[in-house]
Amino acid sequence: MELNNTVHTLKKTNTRWMIVVFLFIVTAINYGDRATLGIAGKAMQGELGFDAADMGWVMSSFGIAYVIGQLPGGWLLDKFGSKRIYFCSILFWSIFTLLQGTVHFFVGAWAISMLFTFRFLMGFAEAPSFPGNSRITAAWFPAKERATAVAIFNSAQYFATVIFAPIMGWLTHEYGWQSVFFFMGGVGIIVSFAALFMIHNPKEHPWANEAEVQYIAEGGALVDMDQKKDSTGKKQGPKLSYLLQLVSNRMLLGVYLGQYCINCLTFFFISWFPIYLATERGMNIKAVGFAAAIPAICGFIGGISGGVFSDYLMRKTGSLSIARKTPIVMGMLFSMTMIFCNYVDSIALVILFMSMAFFGKGVGALGWAVMADTAPKEMSGLAGGLFNMFGNASSIISPIIIGYIVAWSGRFEWALVFVAGHAFVAAFSYLILVGPIKRMELKK
Fold this sequence. Notes:
Radius of gyration: 21 Å
Helix content: over 70%
Mean pLDDT: 85
Shape: globular
Structural class: mainly alpha
CATH class: Mainly Alpha
């Protein structure tokens, strides 16, 4: 009893917020690497000689590998822990990002094939990144702070555009498109080694005191996630026999559908949006980098706002369903304002409507908070991988469909309708299909 009282009187450390800042940095690099083709794509098309449909297939190569890698990545996280797999993921995706800058040494179909291959390998290496983020957040944050924490690292996808799009646009203009891949790959390789110092389990982190660990444990954090051992003293891995329970749960199926639709908006903004500005609206590549940063700033603000609003609702109502569903549904409906771009000629109005849409998308992008709230504690990594696999199926399908829509029509009007329709379906899924949000208990 005396020890317990002593722990409660200690001033707790705030290492968990340093962890989420690091996740933010890693996620910003993650999305910066994904966005390289959006910035360098027009120059690459001109030099390497492929059209919008070819670009759609190259963009989808990332999604194909990313989806394939989700279940193995989640299994590896549960088996070997977050630290080692997170480090390897960052290191290898950064190497394959850098190698994309070498495809100019090839010609014709070989150039496209090598770009497809490096993009594919980058996607496979990135597969454990977001399940890792979710897993680390579930271990480090109590439920009443979790949405804010997830919103911080998830909002890095917008911040990535704010920071990296102008840099990549300038690099493309001054030094050629190859420099974009060399720069982004180099930054990622450096950051990968920082993960070895930053990522630890709460009970093992040298910067977290016992008061902080007890605080987050009492709030529902899974602080023992990577410390479970079986009767032989070995770390337990996930039981694949539980997989059927995950894919047959109505709540999770609704969450999966919602994430699929939300990711369609994400991949439009990080891949096709800069190309839309350059081709449909006639902006030069240097201006595109800065123009694309404006909606991204709004997305960043929306993302943080959505997380803070969700945790506010959680404290006020005590209901995960109200706290998570309200910002998701409101944000998705608001993001449909992108359709108004089809009815204006002014670049300023286009940026305004896209900024409104990006803000709404940011507010509603709480899928990973829902995942951290609902994933079974026995297989958080695999559950996150399955969630991300369903969600990122849109990274395969949507770039190809948008590419063919643009190639067929020569314009982006129906592509914007296609993307906005996904926002509506996401809102419907959370409002009607998901039902009560709670942590899933596996049947033994």
